[in-house]
Structures are given as structure tokens and as C-alpha cells.
């Protein structure tokens, strides 16, 4: 375990020498910050997700996913004390041309609704990117503010010379697996969190989230090598100033090595792409008018060896040997994120469109979601 100062110095050195690294804290243990520091300048990728390390994959499934390999990295960690950072309600930065952005996002939404009425697809997730000034704020200081502000998210900073600096605070698990057990979630429907107010969901949000659950559930049930698929009751999940509807879905894989096939079946899920997947993806690529890059892709720990302490009990030795080589994967969908480039933060936000969508509300939803990153850009 490193001291916080030492830990962030190591990250800064890595950034100064332009070598890939990732630092992150997971929702279940949010004060523990871990990092993979790649030892050399090399560029690694993973196609089948059978490698071990930290993966950073784009939205478009056929494009390569970067990997910081476990075997080529220094792994460091620290306990993070966020008490020195400004917290609570903060102001937020605004971009200059929001009227133009509003008009073009609403036009995009209207075009999608026409397409839904024609029967081309049932749901499509439409997004935009917005550039705001990050000023003189240093990337690692922004990351520390995100860590102190969003305790229940997967908070990360990723750097690779070929992708630039990305960071975010995502609420959405793509797949979590340990040995042959796996878990995923159907997350959709959005409203602003208001303290002290009871939460009611409208039909549009309930239906939209049910689409996502039933697509994931059916896709998993139909897949070879997947068993015992179960879905929880939907519940409300808070992510910063935003609320979503969430259903947890669990199951079993025939082999722990099949994680790549599972991810291939899920990504991009209807929570970030649409339904049916192919026609929604086509609409996104033809109409969004910008490149999502790694926004709504996925990132996280891939096939990480699980540390298991052996006991001296001889009767259980077979089991223990199995446990000693078991691996864990925890991948998140890259949402509520931004790319930092020469003092400019490009924030990425989107939302699901169905036949019942109202263009102005959909614009407002992206504005609300953009606050997650905007509020960490103020000194
Ligand atoms: C697409 C985003 O979020 C996704 C879309 C949601 C929605 O349409 O309500 C809710 C949660 C996420 O699955 C985003 O945050 O940019």
C-alpha cells in the first residue's frame, strides 16, 4: 500500500513519461484506489478478452480494445482521503453554444422518432459531446475531485498515448464475473434526484427499461453455454444527481474463459445503443454526426487472478487449488465520462429514445447528465 502522495506522484510520473496507466476506485470499496502502470511504451490490445489486465474498449464493437496487461504493469494502490476536496453542491461550467446544440439534438431526436414510427427500430440511444473549458485544472486533480464526489460509482482516469486522457464516474456494470458466476444489469430510465421527494416513474421510463431487461434476459437465455439466468425486481438506483431504474441479472457460464462471448453478446446493450441492435447502431453511426470513441464502450478489470489464502487443511486441497487459479472480471459501461485534451474537457452524454420521447425533455436529460462531469471542473 502506498501513501496517497506517493500514489499520485507515481501517476504523474507515468503521465509525464507518456506511458499508459489507469487508476480507479470501484463502488464496493470506494476509498481504495488501485492503478495499473504499464512498464513500457508498447501498445497492447485484446480481441477475444482472454487476456489479463485492464481493458478500455470503444463503442463500436469491431474496433480494437486497448489493454494494460497485468504481466507488464506495476500494480499500486492507496487509501484515498477525500476530505480536503470541495464537496456538496457546486457550481458548474457551461459551454458557449448551447442553443445551437439544443436545436441539433432535438432535431436528431425528432428524426429518430420518425424512424421508430416507420418501424425501423423500437429504441435508439442518442448522444452528443460538449466541449467545456477545464482551464488550468490538472487531470489528476480533477480525478481526485471525482473520487471525493462520487463514492458509489466506478471512478477512473485512463491514459494511453493513442486514446488521450479519459475519466468518468459510471454507475453501470456491463459484466461482473467470478469463476463461472456472472452478473449484469439493465439500467435505463432517468430522472433528476431531488432530496426529500418520493420517486415515481412514468410509463415511458418503465417501458424503456423493460425493453432493456427483456432484451438482455432473452439474449442470455438463448446463448449456448449460459445457464440459470435470473432477473431481480426493478429498483431505483442513484448516480450522483441522477436516478435510474435498474434490474440485476445473474447467471452461470459453462467456463470462466467464456467471458469474451458473453461480452460480445451484450455490448453494446440497448442501454447505450438500441433495439434491435443492428438497425439502432446504423442510425447512430449515420446520424449522430460525431465519433463516440470510448464513450458508451466499456472498461475494467479483465481476468484478474484472485488472491486466495490457503489453509493447511489437507482434505480441501483440490478445492483450494481450483480457488487459487480463479479469476475475476469487472467491466463497466463508459458513461458520465469526458476526454481531456489541452485544457478542454469533451463531455459525452446521451439518452434512450422511444416513440413516447419528447425532444425537449431528451435534451434536458443530456443537460442533467452532463452535470456529473461539469461540477468537477470548477475550482
Ligand atoms: C446513455 C447514457 O446513459 C444510459 C441511458 C439511460 C437512459 O436513457 O435513461 C440511463 C442510463 C444509461 O444506461 C449516458 O449517461 O450518456
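^ C-alpha cells above, recovered residues below v
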Amino acid at each position: 500500500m502506498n501513501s496517497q502522495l506517493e500514489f499520485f506522484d507515481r501517476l504523474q510520473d507515468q503521465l509525464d513519461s507518456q506511458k499508459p496507466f489507469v487508476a480507479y476506485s470501484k463502488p464496493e470499496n470506494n476509498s481504495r484506489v488501485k492503478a495499473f502502470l504499464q512498464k513500457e511504451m508498447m501498445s497492447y490490445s485484446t480481441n477475444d478478452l482472454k487476456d489479463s489486465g485492464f481493458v478500455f474498449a470503444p463503442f463500436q464493437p469491431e474496433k480494437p480494445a486497448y489493454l494494460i496487461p497485468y504481466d507488464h504493469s506495476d500494480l499500486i494502490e492507496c487509501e484515498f482521503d477525500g476530505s480536503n476536496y470541495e464537496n456538496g453542491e457546486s457550481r458548474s461550467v457551461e459551454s458557449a453554444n448551447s442553443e445551437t446544440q439544443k436545436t441539433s439534438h432535438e432535431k436528431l431526436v425528432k428524426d429518430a422518432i420518425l424512424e421508430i414510427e416507420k418501424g425501423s427500430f423500437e429504441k435508439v440511444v442518442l448522444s452528443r459531446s460538449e466541449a467545456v473549458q477545464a482551464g488550468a485544472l490538472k487531470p489528476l486533480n480533477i480525478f481526485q475531485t471525482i473520487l471525493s464526489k462520487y463514492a458509489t460509482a466506478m471512478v477512473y482516469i485512463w491514459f494511453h498515448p493513442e486514446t488521450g486522457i479519459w475519466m468518468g464516474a459510471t454507475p453501470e456494470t456491463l459484466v461482473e464475473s467470478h469463476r463461472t458466476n456472472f452478473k449484469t444489469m439493465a439500467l435505463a430510465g432517468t430522472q433528476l434526484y431531488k432530496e426529500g421527494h418520493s420517486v415515481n416513474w412514468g410509463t415511458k421510463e418503465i417501458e424503456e427499461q423493460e425493453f432493456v431487461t427483456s432484451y438482455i434476459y432473452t439474449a442470455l437465455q438463448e446463448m449456448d453455454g449460459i445457464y440459470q439466468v435470473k432477473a431481480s425486481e426493478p429498483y431505483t438506483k442513484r448516480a450522483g444527481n441522477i436516478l435510474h431504474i435498474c434490474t440485476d441479472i445473474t447467471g452461470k457460464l459453462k467456463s470462466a474463459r467464456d467471458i469474451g462471448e458473453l461480452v460480445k453478446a451484450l455490448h453494446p446493450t440497448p442501454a447505450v445503443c438500441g433495439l434491435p441492435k443492428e438497425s439502432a447502431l446504423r442510425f447512430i453511426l449515420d446520424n449522430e454526426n460525431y465519433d463516440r470513441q470510448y464513450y458508451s464502450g466499456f472498461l475494467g478489470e479483465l481476468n484478474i487472478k484472485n488472491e486466495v489464502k490457503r489453509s493447511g487443511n489437507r482434505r480441501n486441497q483440490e478445492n483450494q487449488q481450483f480457488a487459487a487459479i480463479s479469476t475475476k472480471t469487472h467491466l463497466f459501461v463508459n458513461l458520465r465520462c469526458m476526454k481531456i485534451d489541452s485544457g478542454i474537457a469533451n463531455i459525452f452524454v446521451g439518452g434512450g429514445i422511444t416513440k413516447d420521447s419528447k425532444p425537449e425533455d431528451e435534451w434536458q436529460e443530456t443537460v442533467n447528465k452532463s452535470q456529473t462531469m461539469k461540477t468537477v471542473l470548477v475550482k
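The radius of gyration is 21 Å.
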